[in-house]
Structures
1.
Amino acid sequence: MNVAFYQGKIISLFTYERELWQALYLASLNNKVTCIHCHTPVQLQLSIDEPPTFIHSQLTEQCLEAAIEMEKKLQQPEHGTTHVTNGFQLPKSRMISHQQENSHVWKKPEFVEAIPPFQAAQQTTSGNLSGYRKELCERGIQFDDSQWEAVTTTEGPVMILAGAGSGKTRVLTARAAYMLTELHYSPKKLIMVTFTAKAAKEMKERMATYPNMNQTLLNQLMIGTFHRIFYKILLHHEPKKWASPLLLSMDWQRQAILKSAGREIDIDEKDFAYDQALTQISWWKNHMLTPDLVKTTNPWEEKVLYLYKRYEAIKSENQSFDFDDMLLGAYDLFKKHPDVLSRYQRRFTYVSVDEFQDTNKIQYELIAMLTKSNNLCIVGDDDQSIYAFRGSDPSFMLHFDRSYPHLKKVILNQNYRSSHEIVSTAHNIITSNRTRFQKQLIAQQHSEQLPLMFYPFNQEEEATMIVQDIKQKIQKGHQPNDFAILFRTNTAARALIERFIQSSIPFQLEMDGESFYKRRTVRKVLAYLRLAFDENDPKALTDLVGALFLKQEVIQEVKSLSIMEDCSFIDALAKVNGIQPFQQRKLRSLPAKFNELHKLQPYEAIVFIEREMGLADYVKKQGNEGNKMDRGSDDVKDLKEVAKQHESLEAFLQYVDHMTAKFEEFRLQRSATNAVQLLTIHRSKGLEFKHVYLIEAVEGGIPHDYALEALREGDKKPLEEERRLMYVAITRAIDTISISIPSKRRGKQVQRSRFVREMNQLSTRKLTHKGGTNT
Ligand SMILES: Nc1ncnc2c1ncn2[C@@H]1O[C@H](COP(=O)(O)OP(=O)(O)OP(=O)(O)O)[C@@H](O)[C@H]1O
């Protein structure tokens, strides 16, 4: 039914503001929306593929008649009738401009139709199998001819260009097993570099099941991440210098050093993005840029460069080291002791590196140093290079043959994971990248399920629609772990996480970083709101002092004043002395403003804090801090969207506290086995799921705002990396991919992602399987 009773009046979904649907949905979860006839609670259903409707669990004929009667009445011309145009269900009486059409009415989902006809894969497995390949095949581990070529090419430099889902892991494990058990090479000769410790473990486990393999062989194999392997070498040669207690293994340990350096130049500890500074320093180190070689481009980087210098000096005084030092240390060791290097060169005559597209400079240099024998096998997919922010660069792979002119290339282009429809959609997008090897993946089977695009109003509705969709599918027999929801950034997942918390569906969160409500700028806004309620909230006072650009010492003064003068913290703030006159004026106006704030609804309150209470200045200063990925102003916009869903400040703050507590609880609960996976695209790399949802496929979402900004400044590289992220996301799907294109983001109308446009256009780029870049 389309009518219900809510807040003392009858409402119709045809005329009810779309902006308010989500609040209505939440109200219906709390039984506040009822049937107009029997007043039993009804639930608003916001689903991907059906127009919204109220679900009545105890529907009687009378209820239905009353609803139909009321719908008719409300559809009289003065109430507005509906008509359908281009798939939009539109109320006639409401003047709707073309712009508004997309956002104010529910729109039917659409399929990606730009799919070339499916051609059954050519025979890729030649004739009768024999020997080792046959043995493996009998164990259910088949190989196509290209895969087998990759397995058996053991001598000389080889690049395995492995498209998404083309069996890279299978090839790498079989290749190592082949060398050990068929060619009887000593395991001590092999080094296998993996991208994660988990991948190394998985490969060893797989190898253990191969014919003639035994644990003794596997135990002698040097397999692991760059850090693990080179740290082991360092420990062997310089055990005291690299003793594990000296490792700064935790972020907070490294940040503590930066903070102590920051105090030397008066950086405010609470308000500086030290986490970003650490990432920047690590980026410089991975590029082998010592402080004297760094060229800064803005004042923020200048500050970070100072911190970098001091960070290195303090570490060296304490004789401690970080993860980046492990690789730089190994490089120095080999440079200073050529004898040591040549020992390793003689020992490790067969080197393989997985996920080579994500290597950075120092890793590249170490591998180049080590592989004198030239028996180097690199495996990767330039289209899946997504770690530029950590210093990785696909050009190491693209230009690899410059260092190894006799390089043999093996291309794995059969995709064994996804349907033809999914593979073609991903292909339509990635071919717009200029810097890549030309290649096309070929799927093994096709499916009736075309990739789907759906159109929620905003992030809130997006999350609700996905949760409802998954719920319905689980009711029909799917398992929770059949589903994954991918997002570009952690903050994009806020609404989604909250909707899952409210649902009964088991889910697992794979993300770094804190809860949205603990983010620096969000905490500041919440501090104002909390103090409007409790003028003596000590935690909120600490955050407020930062937002007002006051030194942390002021906190003590405020607390003393409040005791001596028997007044609240807010009144005490107005009495603080010894500060600049303009600051004093600002503080004196605060008590009256907090009084005002108390009376406002959550959304209006945040606008008031921004405009009248100094938050805008704080956000602006944060924006100048050089952090392109993470903007405080975006956080405020996101928070406003949450605020819109609540009628009172009290309810809003209660919701925030509940969600923050639940977030921590769920984040710690890492062991859920049969759960929906919520993860960033970065974390989804190498994984596969039956059903994938990708959220926020809009300009600014993916591609991320920072890439669009770079593009405006003439730098196309970040946009290409975003395109690769989109490619990685889509190619995780085995059976279905559903792409969400909300009309609004952070309260503003947004355009669908340019990648959505690309995926709806059949790629006409000429295909070759011979390699060579598009440029
Ligand atoms: N020759 C083959 N025949 C049948 N299935 C295969 C074959 N090779 C690989 N597979 C299957 O295809 C799927 C994808 O393989 P795998 O995960 O190794 O791909 P990948 O290249 O590592 O993917 P990505 O780079 O996208 O993470 C797996 O389920 C694997 O078991």
2.
Amino acid sequence: MATLQPQHHHLLLRHRPPPPRLRLRLPTRPPRPHRLLPPARAVSAAAAASTAALEDFRRWLSSQGAVEGKAFPAAVPEGLGLVAARDLPRGEVVAEVPKKLWMDADAVAASDIGRACGGGGGLRPWVAVALLLLREVARGADSPWAPYLAILPRQTDSTIFWSEEELLEIQGTQLLSTTVGVKEYVQSEFESVEAEIINANKDLFPGTITSDDFLWAFGILRSRVFPELRGDKLALIPFADLVNHSPTITSEGSSWEIKGKGLFGREAMFSLRTSVDVKSGEQIYIQYDLDKSNAELALDYGFIESNSSRDSYTVTLEISESDPFYGDKLDIAELNGLGETAYFDIVLDEPLPSQMLTYLRLLCIGGTDAFILEALFRNSVWGHLELPLSPDNEESICQVMRDACKSALDAYQTTIQEDEEISQRENLPPRLKIAIGVRAGEKKVLQQIDDIFKQREEELDGLEYYQERRLKDLGLVGDNGEIIFWET
Ligand SMILES: C[S@@+](CC[C@H](N)C(=O)[O-])C[C@H]1O[C@@H](n2cnc3c(N)ncnc32)[C@H](O)[C@@H]1O
């Protein structure tokens, strides 16, 4: 009937992909052998791109017409970032990057990869750009993007790069199942691409490309592509992609635009603006995405925020195929824009999503309430279910949700209180901080859901149900529940 599933692959994969500061590798973790990738930095300030590589990159930017006068790339606590070269007012353009520097579908089409696979159009856009990235890395100094590739991080703190030991810290979380799901998806894409493209074009990929290399490319795209540049528009924009995220920037508007395409033949230009005033020498930040939960931030970028509105839990509800009223329930759900399975993202300190109780009531209909599923009510049933149907039905939804919360909470290895104690310790590795933040956040939301339904259980006797509302509508019961006789 109703299940709280600790996973949400569906949501994740449907979602856009895009990483941290002082991303220090955990001291316990020996670096994996990596055959293809260059000795670029492993996302940590300590391993930030060498001064020489950064200088090279800056020279490359100027020689290629990227406007670098107002902001320059520099080592910052988040790895690399953009620093203001002078005082910049809000709205000022801080970086302009001509299209010829982008790694996008057009660059794929114009490359060896494009030639080898019919323009690259048959590939998923992210797979095509990932292959271009790997091919250009394989070309070493011959690649036109070599100075850019040399400053890319080897890893971020995204959970896709965590060791098994590190992943143990998020046991029981939705983030773990999502991470595993994403890695499986990337692995399966790798296997097809390896068979169909890499092995068939050994001249383009003379060295070995491993699934770790492919995962690296996926992680780079996921952490660096501007969220709106999805699908066919997916593009790595060197220089602009050095901008880091700040939780203090809360403006919704986009901090970038694409200018100039087709205007008097002028080449398209990616233009990044600062959304706040920045003083000379300070770092320029943007808001990556106000809608992402901490689990999504951890998966995409490898950092989280302390803000409670980022703590969320996705409840998955399902109409069971073994339900005797399966067909009717499914029909009603579909008529109202939902399906056999429905996902509800619950955010800490926020009310339950509006349709969740309605859907839950539908799932829990049985016994004498089943009359409401009859065809006669098909157009009005959803409206009826927006309010309590019967004491039995309302009690069932509370039980279902409380049982599900209990079993989800039992799957975590620590309690919220234990997490809070651990998080007070000094010098916690960044990945452990992420793990604690996400698992504590999920548990708080589950606790909140349980509290909501516990309170509801206590109020069952005082609620007004369908039959009572119906009698009132017919004028047979007064507002205080008294029976109205014809003779009075
Ligand atoms: C678009 S890139 C920005 C450039 C990146 N700092 C670098 O060194 O290449 C996104 C990555 O930067 C890091 N990052 C950005 N904002 C951060 C923040 N507020 N805290 C920690 N890391 C951040 C994360 O590693 C993230 O995956």
